[in-house]
Amino acid sequence: MLAQLEQHATPDPSGSSHVLHVLPKGDDLHDAIPHRTLLQALLRRRDVKLGEIVKTPLAATLPDGTLIAWAMRDAAQSVFEQQTSLRKGLQLLLDEHPQTLAIVVHGSDEERRCHAEVAVYTAWINGAKLPERKKKASGKSLEMISLWGYRAAGEFAWQRAIAEGNFLTRSLTVLPPNELTPGLYRQRVRQLADEHSFDYHEYTLDELREMGAGAFVAVAQGSADADAAIVRLRYQHAAGKETIALVGKGICFDTGGHNLKPARYMNGMHEDMNGSAVALGILVAAKHAGLPVNIDCWLALAQNHIGPHAYKQNDVVTALNGTTIEIVHTDAEGRMVLADTLNLAARDKPRMIVDFATLTGSMATALGARYSGIFSNRDDLMARAIAAGRQSGERLCGFPLDADYEPALDSSIADIKQCTLEGGADHILAARFLHRFIDDLPWLHMDLSASNCKGGLGAVTSEVNGFGVGWGLAFLSAVSN
C-alpha cells in the first residue's frame, strides 16, 4: 500500500518530524538554503563542499528532535544517477520508519517540478514495506508524504502508477516458495484480474498436454502437484488500436531438475518467477496510468522439480509449434516454458512481443547486477528499448542475435538443442532458441540480470528491485504514441 500524498505550494514543513530538502546543484551556500548554519557546520566537520551532497546526502537532528536531510539533484546527470542520489537522501529518513515524511523542493519552477517527480516516486517505492515473516515486524510502511514547494495538477499519477507496479513485482518476488506455488500464484493472479477488471484465462497442464505444448509440459511434469499453467490476462483501453504481448517466466522454484543445482546456487531460486512478476507489474502500472494500449499478458507458471516423471538429459520433446527439442541440461528450463508461451502469444499476431525472464547465469556474468540485457530481432525496437532504459533509470545493454551463433544448437536427433554444455555465450544461445517460437513477429527479450542487486539499484533500496516495470511503462508509452 503506497503512502497518501499531500501537496503544498509553500515550502514550509513546520511540525514535520522527518524532512528532506531537495536542492538544485550548486556550490554556493547562500542564505536561501534551509538550516544553512547547521549544514555549513556539517560540511566543515566532514571537509566536503556543498556540491558533493549530490553523491553523499547529509542529515542532522534539530534541537526539537526533527531529523532533516539535504540532498541535491543535478539536472545534468542521468535519470539513474538522480534517482540514486535522492534515494540515498530519503533513506537517511526512512531508516527510522516514520509514518509521515515531508519533502521540500527548492529552486526555479522547473527545478522544483523535476525534484518533486523524482523524490515523490522514490519515496513511494521505498516507503512501502515488503512482505516479511518475522515474529517482530521491522517497521511500518510510510503512511503520508507531504510535498512542500510544488503542486502537481495530476498528483504525480504517472509516478504513482510505476510505483504501484514496482511494488507488486517486488512483493510477489520476495514471497517464500511455499507461499507462491503455481497453484497459489494462479489464485493471486485471479484476484488481481478481478480487482483490475482484466480478462483472465488459464491453460491447465492437462489442456497444454492435449494441445501439444511439450516444451512446457516437460518441465512441469516433474512436480508432484499438477498445478502448472500458462495464464493469460488481457487489458484493453478504449483508445487502444493495437495489442502488445508481454510474456513472463514464472518458475516458482528451480531446483535445476536432474541436473541439480548446488546449495549455493539453489538458494534464492524462489525468485526465478521474477519475469512473470515484472510482466504483471507493467500490466497493473499501464492500467493505473491509463495507457492507450491493449496488452495481452502471458505468464508461464511452473516449478522445476526432481521426480520419477521429471524430464532428463537426451529426452526429445515436441513444442507447440512442432519444433522438436533435444534436452541437454535440465536446468535450462526457463527457455522451455517460454518457448510454448511465446508461441501461444504469437498466434494472435500482436504488434510485438516482449518477454521477461531471469534466464541465464551468463548474462549476470556479462553484466553483473546493475544492467539487464536486451535482445531484439528489429534494430528500431532495440534502439527504443535502450532509450526507454535511459528515460526510466532502468539501464539496458543490447546483445547480438546474429544467426551464426545458432549452429552451436544443431542436434543430430532433433530440430534444435535446448542449450549446450559448454556455457560461454548461453545468454545469446538462449535468445536464438527463443527466436524459433515467435513467428518472426517484432520481439524483445529481456534477461533480468539486474532483478536482484545488493545494496539497491537506482530509485530502489531493496535488493529485489522490480527492475523492468519503470522501463516497461516508458517503452509502452513511446511505442503507443
**Cα radius of gyration in angstroms:** 24 Å
| Assigned CATH superfamily of the largest domain | Zn peptidases
Q: Work out the strand percent.
A: 15-25%
Q: Main beta sheet: strand number and arrangement?
A: 8 strands, mixed
Counting structural domains, the number is: 2
**Share of residues in helices:** 25-40%
Question: Order of strands side by side in the largest beta sheet?
Answer: 7-8-10-9-13-17-14-15
- Shape field: elongated
SSE layout and pairing:
Elements: E1 4-8, E2 18-24, H1 36-46, E3 58-61, E4 67-73, H2 79-94, E5 100-105, H3 109-127, E6 144-148, H4 157-173, H5 182-196, E7 199-204, H6 205-211, H7 214-220, E8 229-235, E9 243-254, H8 263-266, H9 274-289, E10 294-304, E11 316-318, E12 324-326, H10 334-347, E13 352-357, H11 361-367, E14 372-376, H12 379-392, E15 396-398, E16 416-417, H13 426-435, E17 443-447, H14 469-480
Parallel strand pairs: 1-6, 2-4, 2-5, 5-6, 9-10, 9-13, 12-16, 13-17, 14-15
Antiparallel strand pairs: 3-4, 7-8, 8-10, 11-12, 14-17
Helix pairs in contact: 2-3, 3-4, 4-9, 7-10, 9-14, 10-13, 12-14
Features:
elongated, Leucine Aminopeptidase, subunit E, domain 1, 481 residues, 17 strands, 6-stranded mixed β-sheet, Aminopeptidase
Notes on the structure:
- The chain has 481 residues and is α/β, with parallel strands linked by helices.
- The protein folds into 2 domains: 4-154, Leucine Aminopeptidase, subunit E, domain 1, CATH 3.40.220.10; 161-480, Aminopeptidase (3-Layer(aba) Sandwich), CATH 3.40.630.10.
- It has 14 helices and 17 strands.
- The strands form 3 sheets. It has an 8-stranded mixed β-sheet with strand order 7-8-10-9-13-17-14-15, sandwiched between helices. Strands 1-6-5-2-4-3 form a 6-stranded mixed β-sheet, with helices on both faces. Strands 11-12-16 form a 3-stranded mixed β-sheet.
- Helix 3 (109-127) packs parallel to helix 4, helix 9 crosses helix 14 (469-480) and helix 10 packs parallel to helix 13 (426-435).
- The relative contact order is 0.12.
